[in-house]
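Re: beginner question about structure tokens

> Can someone show what the tokenized structure looks like for a real chain? I only ever see the sequence side.

Sure, here's an example I had lying around. Input first:
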Amino acid sequence: MERKVTHKKIVDFHEEIVVKYKGLKGFYRFNWNEIEGQFRSGVQTPALLLESTSSDFTRTENKVGSFNNRRVSFLILDFTGKVNNFDKQEEVLNTTEGIALDIAAYIKTQSDNPNHWLYGLYDVSSLSIEKVGPIFDNMFGWNVLYTLKNKESMVVDPDKWE
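And the corresponding structure tokens:
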């Protein structure tokens, strides 16, 4: 059985957002080594940095179905130049907040589209946006978090087992 929501679909969707949205210049995947150490050089900003998803599982009230609640997190970041340039920080936060809200609206639009794989999976009430920065090389912006609620069969496929 093919799963409707996969890691690859989520990554590809966010990369597509960067291609389509005129205000973004870069799409990046990153890992804990970069968070704990030095972020790569040559980053084009403003950028969308996608983290890996996490999941929690719930059962339906009648206990005949299950949901895989995929929690998605991405950052919208830009450089502010010199440390403590507060005017530039405010400018970057204002611009990146607008980008984050535009992307949230785009996700909602795709979730309302019966021809898109996101159809019916996104609940606006799961959305949260949190300020971040300074991180990496004096970058500021927003962490956007939301959940995709996807049915998960939780039934063993006998062809995959001995």
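Each token stands for a local structural state, so reading them left to right follows the chain. The chain is about 30% helix and 30% strand.
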